[in-house]
Design goal:
- It holds the Pfam family GGDEF.
- Residues 125-282 form the Phytochrome chromophore attachment site domain.
- It is an enzyme of class 2 (transferase).
- Residues 478-505 form a coiled coil.
- InterPro entries: Diguanylate_Cyclase, GAF, GAF-like_dom_sf, GGDEF_dom, Nucleotide_cyclase, PAS-like_dom_sf, PAS_2, Phyto_chromo_attachment.
- By secondary structure, the protein is an alpha+beta fold.
- The protein has 4 domains: 11-101, Beta-Lactamase (2-Layer Sandwich); 106-209 and 218-290, Beta-Lactamase (2-Layer Sandwich), CATH 3.30.450.40; 295-481, GAF domain (Beta-Lactamase); 514-660, Alpha-Beta Plaits (2-Layer Sandwich), CATH 3.30.70.270.
- The protein contains 16 helices and 23 strands.
- The chain has helices at residues 29-33, 45-49, 51-61, 106-122, 126-141, 183-191, 226-234, 267-311, 316-330, 353-366, 456-504, 514-531, 545-552, 554-571, 595-610, 636-652; strands spanning 11-16, 22-25, 71-75, 78-90, 93-101, 145-151, 157-164, 174-176, 194-197, 239-247, 250-259, 335-340, 343-348, 373-375, 394-401, 407-414, 419-423, 443-447, 536-542, 577-582, 585-590, 623-629, 658-660.
- The strands form 4 sheets. An 8-stranded mixed β-sheet has the order 9-10-11-6-7-8-17-18, with helices on both faces. Strands 2-1-5-4-3 form a 5-stranded antiparallel β-sheet.
- The longest helix has 49 residues, at 456-504.
- It is rod-shaped, with a radius of gyration of 52 Å.
- Bound molecules: guanosine-5'-triphosphate (GTP).
- Guanosine-5'-triphosphate binds at residues 508, 541-547, 549, 554, 557-558, 561, 583-584, 651, 655.
- Guanosine-5'-triphosphate binds next to strand 19, helix 13 and helix 14.
C-alpha cells in the first residue's frame, strides 16, 4: 500500500477539485495547527479554515494551477499564532499545505531581501553575483555552508561560489561526480525547484492515511527519499535547503544550504531565498547573454573584413593568410583549415593534408546535415580515432554550402588542454565516510587528451563565420571566372583581328589585298549606280621590276613595294583606297573623282614615286598608270580591264606615264 511520508514541520489537507470537501488530512493537523475537525459527517474546507479564508482560497484558485503566493492567516480565538498556506492542484485534487509562522520581524526580512535584491541587480560579473547570492542566503537562513554548484556538460557539479561558517574548509573549485545527481533527482528539481529537509535524521512520518494515494512529489513537506537521506548523512549533512537554478537550456546548477545540525527554515525565509535565487538566475542569464553578444559582435567585426573581401574578392589562401590569427584568437584554436574544391588551405598547427582529406571524406559521409560538427576528444570519436592527428584534441567543422552538390569546410583545431579536476567526492560509493561539511580527503585527477569544450556561442559564431566565408569564396570564384572569361574574350578579339588582317590585307605591304579592294570597288559601283557619283580606278605597275629584282635581289624588290605602298597610301585622301592587285600591280580607288581629278591624282602619284629613294637602290623607281573613270554600265571587270589596257598603253608609250582608259564600247544590239 502506498503511504505518503511527510516531514512534520507542516500539515496537509487534500481537497476535491472543487476545493470544497476535505478528502484527507495529515495526522499532525490538529497538533500542529490546532485545527480540530468533527469526527463524523462530511468535512468542508470551511470547517478547517473558516468561511472567509476557504472562500478566498476557492476564489484565487479558480481556473489556476496554484495560488499566486502563500496566504497568511490567524485562527480566530488564537490570534497569537500565525500560519501560511500554499494550495495547488494535482490531477483531480487540490493540496493545501499549512505551515505555522513563528513571530518574526517580517518587515525586517523584507528590508533585508530588498537590499540583497538590489545587490544582485547591480552585479556586473557572474562571480560577484553568485558571491552576493550565497552571502545573502547564508545571512537569511544561517546554514553552515551555502554553495552554488554548476553542472558541466557531463553533469558533474563544480562548486563555483560558497559562503561558510567559521572554521569550515572551502570546497570552492571542487567537483561532485555526475553520479551524485542522477537524472531522477535533476528532473525533480526541474519540476519543483525548492527542496527543504530540516532534519535529515528525523524518521519520515506516515502522516497520511494509508488509503489515500496522494501524489506528494510537489509538496514542500514530502519526506526525502531514503537514498537521498543516506547520501546527505554520508556528507555529514543534517539539514538541507536546495534550490534549482534553471538555465535557458536546462538545469544550470543548484544552490545548496547545508548544516551539520538540524536547522529549521521559516516559510517566509524559504520563500525569500527562492526569490533571491530566481532573481540571481535571471541576472546571470542576462550577464551571460550580454557577454555572448559581445563575443558574437567581435566575430561579426572580423567578418566585416571578409565582407570587404567580397567587394575586392580574395582567394581562400589570401583570406586565411589575413584572418587566421584573428579567428584563432576568437575561437581559442591553434589551427585552421579551409577545405575548398578538394584542396586544403591551412594556417597554424593542423594535421597533414592527407589526414585532413581523410577526415573530410568521413565527415562528408557521416555528417550530412548542415550544422557544425565538433568534438573535444578526436582520439575517442569513431569518425576521427583512426586518423593520426596527435597534436589536435578538439575540432569544430562547419560545412559551407557552396552549391547544390558541393560543400567546402571550415575546420578549427584546438590543442590538448590538460585539466586538473579536484573532486570532493569520488564517483563510486566511497567506503570512507567523506563529509561535505568537513571534507576529509582531497582527491584530484589530471584530465589529458581533451581540448577545451566548444561553447554553444562559439558554435553559433563559427556558423556565422562559415556563412560569411561561403559568400567570400563564392565571390572570389565568380570574379576568377569573370577574369578568365575576360582573358578568353581578349584572346578571341585578337584572333579575330588577325583573321581580319589575313582576310583583307596584303601581308607584305599591309595595304588592302585583292579581295578587299575588289569588295570596295563593288560597293562603290553600287553607290555610283544609285547616285550617279563618278569614281576612278588607277591601276599601276612598277616599271622594269624584274630587272630590279634580278639586279638587287628579291628583298630589295620587296622594300621597293613596301616603300611604294607607304608613299602612295600616305598621299591619298581619307576616302580613297589603295590595294595590291597582285605582284607589282596596285589599284587606287579614288571616290568622287571625275576624269580631271583622276588624271591629276595619277600624275601626282607618278611624279611622287619617281622621286622615291630606296636604300641600296641606285636607280629611280617609276610606275606606269592606267586611269579608268566609271561610266554607266561599267562592272568591276570592265572597269579594271579598261584601266589595264590604259596601263599597257603607258608601258608601251615608254613607261613612267599616265594613260586614260578609252570610253567603253557602246553595247551592240
Ligand atoms: N621582290 C618581289 N618581286 C615580285 C613580287 N611579285 C612579283 N614580283 C616580280 O615582279 C616581276 C614582274 O616582272 P614583269 O612582269 O616582267 O614586269 P617588269 O619587269 O616590271 O616589266 P614592265 O612591267 O614591262 O616594266 C617578276 O619578276 C615577279 O617575280 C614581290 O612580291 N616581290
Amino acid at each position: 500500500m502506498f503511504r505518503p511520508l511527510l516531514q512534520s514541520f507542516g500539515a496537509l489537507l487534500v481537497l476535491d477539485a472543487d476545493c470544497r470537501r476535505i478528502q484527507a488530512t495529515s495526522t499532525n493537523l490538529a497538533c500542529l495547527t490546532g485545527i480540530e475537525l468533527p469526527e463524523n459527517g462530511e468535512l468542508s474546507l470551511a470547517c478547517a479554515l473558516g468561511k472567509r479564508l476557504s472562500q478566498r482560497v476557492r476564489r484565487e484558485l479558480q481556473g489556476q494551477q496554484r495560488l499566486p503566493g502563500p496566504l497568511a492567516f490567524i485562527r480566530p480565538k488564537h490570534s497569537s499564532v500565525r500560519f501560511q498556506l500554499h494550495a495547488y492542484r494535482v490531477d483531480e485534487q487540490v493540496i493545501v499545505e499549512i505551515e505555522p509562522l513563528n513571530p518574526l520581524g517580517k518587515r525586517r526580512l523584507l528590508g533585508t531581501v530588498n537590499e540583497r535584491l538590489m545587490h544582485l541587480a547591480e552585479a556586473t560579473h557572474q562571480e560577484e553575483l553568485l558571491d552576493s547570492l550565497v552571502n545573502a542566503i547564508q545571512q537569511l537562513t544561517g546554514h553552515d555552508r551555502v554553495s552554488v554548484c554548476h553542472f558541466d556538460s557531463d553533469w558533474h557539479g563544480l562548486i563555483v561560489a560558497e559562503a561558510l561558517g567559521e572554521r569550515l574548509p572551502s570546497l570552492l573549485g571542487q567537483r561532485f561526480p555526475a553520479s551524485d545527481f542522477p537524472i531522477t533527482l535533476r528532473r525533480s528539481y526541474e519540476n519543483h525547484p525548492v527542496r527543504l529537509i530540516e532534519d535529515v535524521n528525523a524518521p519520515p512520518e506516515m502522516l497520511m492515511p494509508a488509503f489515500s494515494a496522494i501524489p506528494l512529489s510537489g509538496s514542500f513537506l514530502r519526506a526525502p527519499a531514503p537514498e537521498r537521506q543516506r547520501y546527505l548523512k554520508r556528507l555529514g549533512v543534517s539539514s538541507s535547503l536546495s534550490l534549482a537554478m534553471q538555465g535557458d537550456t536546462g538545469l544550470w546548477g543548484l544552490v545548496f544550504c547545508h548544516s551539520a545540525t538540524p536547522h529549521s527554515v521559516e516559510p517566509p525565509v524559504r520563500d525569500a531565498v527562492r526569490t533571491l535565487v530566481q532573481m540571481a538566475t535571471q541576472r546571470m542569464l542576462l550577464l551571460r547573454a550580454r557577454q555572448e553578444a559581445r563575443y558574437l559582435q567581435r566575430v561579426q567585426d572580423s567578418l566585416v573584413l571578409s565582407t570587404r573581401a567580397r567587394s575586392e574578392p580574395q582567394s581562400p589562401q589570401r583570406l586565411l593568410h589575413e584572418q587566421a590569427a584573428t579567428w584563432m584568437k576568437l575561437f581559442r584554436a591553434h589551427g585552421i583549415v579551409l577545405w575548398v574544391n578538394g584542396g586544403a588551405y591551412q594556417a597554424g598547427v593542423t594535421p597533414s593534408p592527407e589526414a585532413i582529406s581523410q577526415f573530410v571524406l568521413r565527415l562528408e559521409r557521416a555528417h550530412v546535415h548542415s550544422g557544425p560538427w565538433c568534438t573535444r576528444e578526436l582520439a575517442k570519436e569513431p569518425l576521427t580515432c583512426s586518423l593520426a592527428m596527435p597534436e589536435q584534441c578538439g575540432a569544430l567543422a562547419v560545412p559551407l554550402s557552396m552549391n547544390a552538390t558541393q560543400r567546402a569546410w571550415l575546420i578549427l583545431f584546438r590543442p590538448e588542454q590538460v585539466e586538473t579536476l579536484y573532486w570532493a567526492m569520488q564517483p563510486s560509493a566511497n567506503p570512507l565516510p567523506a563529509s561535505i561539511v568537513t571534507p576529509s580527503v582531497a582527491w584530484y585527477e589530471e584530465v589529458v587528451g581533451k581540448s577545451e569544450a566548444w561553447q554553444r556561442v562559439e558554435r553559433l559564431a563559427a556558423v556565422d563565420l562559415g556563412e560569411d566565408l561561403t559568400l567570400a569564396i563564392s565571390a572570389y570564384e565568380i570574379s576568377s571566372l569573370n577574369m578568365h572569361l575576360e582573358r578568353e574574350r581578349k584572346a578571341l578579339a585578337e584572333a579575330n583581328q588577325r583573321l581580319e588582317q589575313l582576310a583583307h590585307f596584303d601581308p607584305l605591304t599591309k595595304v588592302w589585298n585583292r579581295y578587299r579592294i575588289e569588295e570596295a570597288i563593288n560597293a562603290e559601283l553600287v553607290a555610283a549606280k544609285r547616285y550617279a557619283a563618278a569614281f576612278a580606278l588607277l591601276l599601276f605597275d612598277v616599271d622594269n621590276f624584274k630587272q630590279i629584282n634580278d639586279s638587287y635581289g628579291h628583298s630589295v624588290g620587296d622594300d621597293v613595294l613596301v616603300a611604294l605602298a607607304r608613299l602612295v597610301e600616305s598621299s591619298l585622301r581619307g576616302c580613297d583606297h589603295l590595294g595590291r592587285w597582285g605582284g607589282e600591280e596596285f589599284i587606287v580607288l579614288a571616290t568622287h573623282s571625275d576624269v580631271d581629278a583622276a588624271v591629276g591624282l595619277a600624275e601626282r602619284l607618278r611624279s611622287l614615286v619617281a622621286e622615291l629613294h630606296i636604300a641600296g637602290l641606285e636607280q629611280a623607281v617609276t610606275v606606269s598608270i592606267g586611269v579608268a573613270v566609271w561610266q554607266p554600265g561599267d562592272s568591276c571587270k570592265t572597269l579594271i580591264s579598261r584601266a589595264d589596257d590604259a596601263m599597257y598603253r603607258a608601258k608601251h608609250g615608254g613607261r613612267n606615264r599616265v594613260e586614260m582608259a578609252l570610253e567603253p564600247m557602246a553595247p551592240t544590239h
